[in-house]
Amino acid sequence: MAKKKRRGSLFERARLSRLAAVQAFYQMILREQSSGVVIAEFMNLRFSSEEYTIQPDPVLFQKLVSGAEERGAEILNVIQASLNKDWQYERLECVLKAILYIASAELLNRLTDVPAPVIITEYVDITRSFYAGKETAFVNGYLDRLARHLGYAMSRQEGNPEIKEDNLV
Questions:
Q1: Which residue, 63, 91, 62, is CA-closest to 79?
Q2: Closest alpha carbon to 124 in 156, 153, 157, 102
Q3: 110 three-state secondary structure
Q4: Distance CA 115, CA 169 (A)
């Protein structure tokens, strides 16, 4: 008998949506599938499986995955422009590429009212769940530069609202 899913807080649902979007984009890269195919698989099969004990936010998930695909060329240019001699795009692992694409899509498309430092922390935590090395610092630095370039407030002094759970979607 399948376990009943917890609804979860807005924060938990958004966090799980971000992780699921990274997993979905990874699948898109490996299998060369479109976002429509992968989104349907996740929504119809994976989210109802025991793999997800909390129901991810389906709207945020869809926006992240489709946004990363729609703005893929732009995101690729942003990623490549930010790389130095130590990081070459062709040598990045697919998981790291998926994290960069999904996080970039969230920041570029301004999908939530979540402050940029919180979004960055979410993706750094996702990166940390896959890597123990310098990848986390790379993702943190890349997203910080991207958020600043896009004009996000990076501290309360720059106009961030007080961080509450409602803002963490």
A1: 91
A2: 102
A3: coil
A4: 10
Sequence spans of domains, the chain:
10-163
What values do phi and psi take at 54, rounded to 5? -120, 140
The encoded tokens of residue 35 equal 């976002």
| Distance, first Cα to last Cα, the chain | 31
pLDDT digits (tens, 9 = 90+) for 82-136: 888 777 898 899 999 999 999 999 999 998 889 999 999 999 999 999 999 899 9
Using a cut of 0.85, tell me whether the model's pTM lies above it: yes
Nearest to 27 by CA among 81, 83, 79, 101: 101
Distance CA 101, CA 89 (A): 12
Polymer length in residues for the chain: 169
Domain 10-163 matching CATH 3.10.100.10: the answer reads: no
2-38 per-position pLDDT tens digit: 555 667 889 999 999 999 999 999 999 999 999 999 9
Q: What are the residues whose beta carbons fall under 8 Å from the beta carbon of 12, sequence distance 6 or more?
A: 54
Q: How distant is the alpha carbon of residue 25 from its chain centre? A: 9
AA identity, residue 119 = I
Q: What is the DSSP letter of 143?
A: H
